[in-house]
TrEMBL record:
Organism of derivation: Allobacillus salarius
Modified residues (Phosphothreonine): 91
Subunit comment: Homotetramer.
Family under the similarity heading: Belongs to the NDK family.
Entry protein name: Nucleoside diphosphate kinase
Key words of the record: ATP-binding, Cytoplasm, Kinase, Magnesium, Metal-binding, Nucleotide metabolism, Nucleotide-binding, Phosphoprotein, Transferase
């Protein structure tokens, strides 16, 4: 089953949105495989956002993502990578549809509440970057027979 990396950014944690965001993924039918509240180091931030290192907003992005705790998660389920991106909405919350996480909770691209892997390759990379193998749990949920 597919897995993806999702993270409530420091603005989402400070604004008490963790519960609502977790509830959306649970209600959709996805299964939580791992989760933790953590402070991202400068080094981890620069590695995670490495593809943006030449962008003008890189410094601001690293400062922001290290400015307070984040809530890191691994979610599992059929087509979860693409579906999580749909549930998050467009990168700029002003372009994000209503009923998406960014559409409902964000106003600016710099503080857009949530991160989610954008491909199979980045999901694998980001899960390995943020979680040890033993922090991820393989288990059955009875609801799955009603979801699939
Ligand atoms: P994504 O988070 O939707 O995958 P990316 O293009 O990978 O979007 O950008 C990573 C993050 O960088 C965004 O979520 C956003 O917080 C931040 N970002 C993107 N563009 C800008 C910008 O123009 N100014 C400030 N921050 C930006």
């Amino acid at each position: 089953m597919e897995r993806t990396f999702v993270m409530v950014k420091p603005d989402g944690v400070q604004r008490n949105l963790v519960g609502d965001i977790v509830a959306r993924f649970e209600s959709k039918g996805f299964k939580l495989a791992g989760a933790k509240l953590m402070q991202i180091s400068q080094n981890l931030a620069e590695t995670h956002y490495g593809e943006h290192s030449d962008k003008p907003f890189f410094g601001e992005l690293v400062d922001f993502i290290t400015s307070g705790p984040v809530f890191a998660m691994v979610w599992e389920g059929e087509n979860v990578i693409a579906t999580a991106r749909k549930m998050m909405g467009a990168t700029n919350p002003q372009d994000a549809d209503v009923a998406t996480i960014r559409g409902d909770f964000g106003l600016t691209v710099g503080k857009n509440v949530i991160h989610g892997s954008d491909s199979e390759e980045s999901a694998k990379r980001e899960i390995e970057l943020f979680f040890l193998n033993e922090e991820l749990v393989d288990y059955q949920k009875n609801q799955d027979t009603w979801v699939y």
